[in-house]
Amino acid sequence: MTAADTITGCSYDDIVVGEVLPELAIPLTRTLIVATAIATRDFQDVHHDPELARERGSKDVFMNILTSNGLAGRFVTDWAGPYVTVRRVKIRLGAPNYAGDTMTMTGEVLSKKDGVVEVRVVGANSLGNHLSGTVTVAYPAGEGKDA
To answer: Between the CA of residue 8 and those of 34, 123, 139, what are the distances in Å?
Structure first.
Protein backbone atom coordinates (compact mmCIF):
# COMPACT_ATOMS: atom_id res chain seq x y z
CA MET A 1 0.00 0.00 0.00
CA THR A 2 1.33 3.43 -0.93
CA ALA A 3 0.38 6.87 0.34
CA ALA A 4 -1.66 7.37 -2.84
CA ASP A 5 -3.78 4.34 -1.92
CA THR A 6 -5.02 6.08 1.24
CA ILE A 7 -5.97 9.40 -0.36
CA THR A 8 -9.69 10.00 -0.41
CA GLY A 9 -11.83 12.55 -2.16
CA CYS A 10 -14.29 12.97 -4.97
CA SER A 11 -13.39 12.68 -8.61
CA TYR A 12 -14.66 15.76 -10.43
CA ASP A 13 -16.47 13.54 -12.94
CA ASP A 14 -18.43 11.81 -10.15
CA ILE A 15 -19.76 15.03 -8.58
CA VAL A 16 -23.43 15.82 -9.22
CA VAL A 17 -25.13 19.18 -8.70
CA GLY A 18 -27.48 18.74 -5.75
CA GLU A 19 -25.22 16.16 -4.11
CA VAL A 20 -25.28 16.36 -0.31
CA LEU A 21 -21.95 16.18 1.47
CA PRO A 22 -21.53 13.91 4.51
CA GLU A 23 -22.06 15.81 7.78
CA LEU A 24 -19.04 16.72 9.87
CA ALA A 25 -19.44 17.22 13.64
CA ILE A 26 -16.76 19.45 15.15
CA PRO A 27 -16.50 19.46 18.97
CA LEU A 28 -16.02 23.06 20.11
CA THR A 29 -13.41 22.84 22.84
CA ARG A 30 -11.95 25.82 24.67
CA THR A 31 -8.55 24.73 23.34
CA LEU A 32 -9.82 24.83 19.73
CA ILE A 33 -11.31 28.30 20.19
CA VAL A 34 -8.32 29.84 21.99
CA ALA A 35 -5.56 28.11 20.01
CA THR A 36 -7.05 28.93 16.61
CA ALA A 37 -7.62 32.58 17.56
CA ILE A 38 -3.98 32.88 18.55
CA ALA A 39 -2.81 30.89 15.51
CA THR A 40 -4.63 33.38 13.26
CA ARG A 41 -3.05 36.26 15.22
CA ASP A 42 -6.44 37.41 16.52
CA PHE A 43 -5.56 38.62 20.00
CA GLN A 44 -8.98 40.10 20.81
CA ASP A 45 -9.66 39.19 24.43
CA VAL A 46 -13.17 37.88 23.65
CA HIS A 47 -11.50 34.89 21.97
CA HIS A 48 -9.26 33.87 24.89
CA ASP A 49 -10.24 35.54 28.18
CA PRO A 50 -13.58 34.30 29.60
CA GLU A 51 -13.81 37.03 32.25
CA LEU A 52 -13.28 39.88 29.77
CA ALA A 53 -15.60 38.21 27.26
CA ARG A 54 -18.36 38.21 29.91
CA GLU A 55 -17.64 41.87 30.76
CA ARG A 56 -18.28 42.64 27.09
CA GLY A 57 -21.65 40.88 27.15
CA SER A 58 -20.77 37.40 25.94
CA LYS A 59 -21.41 34.27 27.99
CA ASP A 60 -17.86 33.00 27.29
CA VAL A 61 -15.03 33.18 24.76
CA PHE A 62 -16.19 32.50 21.21
CA MET A 63 -14.68 31.40 17.92
CA ASN A 64 -13.22 34.01 15.60
CA ILE A 65 -14.19 34.41 11.94
CA LEU A 66 -10.83 33.24 10.58
CA THR A 67 -11.30 29.90 12.31
CA SER A 68 -14.86 29.66 10.97
CA ASN A 69 -13.53 30.35 7.46
CA GLY A 70 -10.89 27.68 7.87
CA LEU A 71 -13.35 25.09 9.14
CA ALA A 72 -15.70 25.79 6.22
CA GLY A 73 -12.83 25.26 3.80
CA ARG A 74 -11.69 22.13 5.63
CA PHE A 75 -15.19 20.66 5.46
CA VAL A 76 -15.26 20.97 1.66
CA THR A 77 -11.65 19.90 1.05
CA ASP A 78 -12.08 16.84 3.30
CA TRP A 79 -14.89 15.80 0.93
CA ALA A 80 -13.32 16.93 -2.37
CA GLY A 81 -9.82 15.62 -1.67
CA PRO A 82 -6.30 16.91 -1.20
CA TYR A 83 -5.70 17.99 -4.79
CA VAL A 84 -8.31 20.75 -4.99
CA THR A 85 -7.49 24.39 -4.47
CA VAL A 86 -9.80 26.56 -2.41
CA ARG A 87 -10.72 29.47 -4.64
CA ARG A 88 -13.20 31.28 -2.39
CA VAL A 89 -14.82 31.09 1.01
CA LYS A 90 -17.80 33.41 1.35
CA ILE A 91 -19.61 33.03 4.65
CA ARG A 92 -21.78 35.03 7.02
CA LEU A 93 -21.72 34.50 10.75
CA GLY A 94 -24.74 34.00 12.95
CA ALA A 95 -24.87 32.36 16.38
CA PRO A 96 -21.52 32.29 18.22
CA ASN A 97 -19.55 29.08 18.64
CA TYR A 98 -18.97 28.60 22.38
CA ALA A 99 -16.85 25.96 24.06
CA GLY A 100 -18.74 22.83 25.10
CA ASP A 101 -21.01 22.81 22.06
CA THR A 102 -20.68 21.04 18.70
CA MET A 103 -20.82 22.62 15.28
CA THR A 104 -22.25 20.32 12.62
CA MET A 105 -21.25 21.15 9.06
CA THR A 106 -23.58 20.31 6.18
CA GLY A 107 -23.25 21.07 2.49
CA GLU A 108 -24.72 20.68 -0.97
CA VAL A 109 -23.14 21.05 -4.42
CA LEU A 110 -24.58 24.17 -6.06
CA SER A 111 -22.67 24.19 -9.33
CA LYS A 112 -19.98 22.42 -11.32
CA LYS A 113 -18.29 23.83 -14.43
CA ASP A 114 -14.85 23.68 -16.02
CA GLY A 115 -13.21 22.01 -13.04
CA VAL A 116 -14.71 24.40 -10.48
CA VAL A 117 -17.24 23.29 -7.87
CA GLU A 118 -19.30 25.58 -5.62
CA VAL A 119 -20.71 24.12 -2.40
CA ARG A 120 -23.31 25.67 -0.11
CA VAL A 121 -22.18 25.21 3.51
CA VAL A 122 -23.92 25.60 6.85
CA GLY A 123 -22.34 25.18 10.27
CA ALA A 124 -24.95 24.85 13.02
CA ASN A 125 -24.65 24.59 16.79
CA SER A 126 -27.23 24.39 19.60
CA LEU A 127 -27.98 28.13 19.24
CA GLY A 128 -28.64 28.00 15.48
CA ASN A 129 -26.56 28.57 12.37
CA HIS A 130 -23.06 29.74 13.20
CA LEU A 131 -22.06 30.14 9.56
CA SER A 132 -23.67 29.93 6.16
CA GLY A 133 -22.38 30.61 2.69
CA THR A 134 -20.37 29.01 -0.08
CA VAL A 135 -16.97 27.44 -0.63
CA THR A 136 -15.61 27.22 -4.17
CA VAL A 137 -12.86 24.75 -5.07
CA ALA A 138 -10.97 24.05 -8.29
CA TYR A 139 -9.75 20.66 -9.44
CA PRO A 140 -6.28 20.35 -11.01
CA ALA A 141 -5.81 20.89 -14.73
CA GLY A 142 -6.86 17.83 -16.65
CA GLU A 143 -9.84 17.12 -14.43
CA GLY A 144 -13.12 18.90 -14.95
CA LYS A 145 -13.78 18.86 -18.64
CA ASP A 146 -17.56 19.08 -18.61
CA ALA A 147 -19.24 17.34 -21.52
So the answer is: 30, 22, 14
pLDDT in tens, 26-79: 999 999 999 999 998 878 787 888 888 899 999 999 899 999 999 999 999 999
Nearest one of 68, 71, 55 to 94, comparing CA atoms: 68
* Amino acid symbol at 130: H
pLDDT of residue 2: 46
**50 lies in some domain:** no
CATH code (residue 82):
3.10.129.10
**Helix (H) or strand (E) run with residue 119 in it:** strand 116-125
Give the torsion sign (CA, 145, 87, 84, 21): negative
